[in-house]
């Protein structure tokens, strides 16, 4: 069926992108763990905290959260409560999943669009961090906003593939 073929083609595009974004997220998480550990050790051991550590961790969290979300959805790792839906037939479950994926996709498309608009505003306004982040006096927030928009776009593609798969299951004879 054409829905299956389209979904599989979309998955072949989205899978490597979400996997690489997840690798980046995990790598930054590891850096963040070492950074926070060093900051705590220096703060309480030598009374010499790392300047700008709070903002640096905030900026790293953008990547950790946003870049891991599409991969998690791709592997159905998000929390779901399906006590009622699990009692339905497979076809009814697919219909419910299709509706949920469609609503989620609509929300994510709007979120992606608004994040892109917000990123442009932040870029034009020159919005910068206030403190000293890793030796840099001010860091622009615009690239981080664009990374969130990218992550939302990839998650939208994953949700589109999930929607097409569940819709295909729902209409299959």
Structure annotation, total helices = 4
Question: Which whole number gives the mean pLDDT?
Answer: 86
CA-atom Rg in angstroms? 20 Å
Total discrete domains: 1
Overview of the structural elements:
- With 173 residues, this protein is mainly alpha-helical.
- The protein has one domain.
- The chain contains four helices and no strands.
- Helix 1 packs antiparallel against helix 2, helix 1 packs antiparallel against helix 4 and helix 2 runs parallel beside helix 4.
- The protein is elongated and about 65 Å long.
- The termini are close together.
- 27% of the residues are buried.
Which key features would you list for this structure?
mainly alpha
Quick gist of this model?
This protein is mainly alpha-helical and 173 residues long.
Give a topology summary:
Elements lengths: L1 H45 L6 H22 L15 H36 L16 H30 L2
Helix pairs in contact: 1-2, 1-4, 2-4, 3-4
């Amino acid at each position: 069926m054409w829905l299956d073929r389209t979904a599989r083609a979309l998955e072949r595009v989205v899978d490597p992108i979400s996997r690489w974004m997840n690798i980046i997220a995990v790598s930054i998480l590891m850096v963040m763990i070492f950074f926070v550990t060093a900051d705590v050790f220096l703060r309480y051991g030598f009374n010499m905290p790392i300047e700008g550590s709070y903002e640096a961790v905030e900026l790293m969290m953008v990547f950790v959260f946003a870049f891991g979300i599409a991969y998690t959805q791709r592997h159905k790792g998000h929390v779901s409560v399906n006590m009622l839906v699990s009692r339905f037939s497979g076809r009814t479950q697919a219909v419910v999943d299709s509706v949920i994926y469609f609503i989620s996709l609509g929300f994510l498309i709007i979120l992606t669009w608004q994040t892109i608009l917000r990123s442009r505003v932040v870029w034009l306004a020159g919005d910068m961090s206030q403190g000293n982040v890793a030796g840099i006096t001010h860091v622009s927030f615009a690239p981080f906003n664009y990374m969130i928009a990218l992550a939302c776009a990839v998650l939208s593609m994953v949700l589109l593939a999930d929607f097409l798969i569940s819709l295909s299951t729902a209409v299959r004879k």
